[in-house]
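Kindly inspect this one:
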Amino acid sequence: MIDLHAHTTASDGSLTSEELVDLAAAKGLSVLAVTDHDTVAGIAAALKRGKERGVDVIPGIKLGAKWNGGGQMHILGYQIDREDPRLTDRLSWLQARRRERGERIVNRLNELGVPISWERVEQLAATGSVGRPHVARALLEAAHVETISEAFSLYLSPGAPAYLEKAELAPAEAIELIRAAGGVAVLAHATTLKLTGSKLEACVEHLAAQGLSGIEVYWPKHTEDEKASYKRLGARYNLVATMGSDFHGSRPDSCRKRNGVFS
């Protein structure tokens, strides 16, 4: 069994790199890709633990891409050189923008009469990449909401009063960064693009022309029809079909609960 899409506490997962690899080994996985948001901080520990536990860990990343569609685009990168200078420089820029966004979200919540502290959000993120899930956990701790999902629906999702867009790379730059770092670029969970038919095909064709190498066909929330559609598109544009759980955690306090390979 393999899983090519999983997160650690280096971004918005609830398990450390070591815990994630341990769980993968316990579940019988032979290959695991660590694909944290905008950071490679969790890869070294995962590689080390993978050697100890007999799990082939693929160094990866997940980059948000800004485009003119209505949905969200994420590009996964596999077998990247995590020390590539240009990649690390752009990731540092993205991390700084994430922190700025997080502080602005906290300030907006406080202005709305929903007090939480930026210091606590930082503590929850620890050394990881700051994101909305950490703000959501702070809201839950402060008893402003009853669940993480409620935090997102009331305050943090697009259209909610405390939502702010994040800084993202253009799709072409995200793909080029991955390729320049020796990796292969794959379109994550195509359903979040919110495109169908000819518009979806045009998007995939454009990304393929920019150097995309694969498309994530098997993802927990894809319907059978979507899987078949994405598989056909991949074959049409010579894209490898991949699979991943988008695993974030299995603890009660996990940032996001998702069904997948580990569940």
User: Anything to note?
Assistant: Strands lie at 2-6, 31-34, 56-65, 73-78, 184-187, 214-218, 240-243. The chain is about 40% helix and 15% strand. The chain has a mean pLDDT of 92.
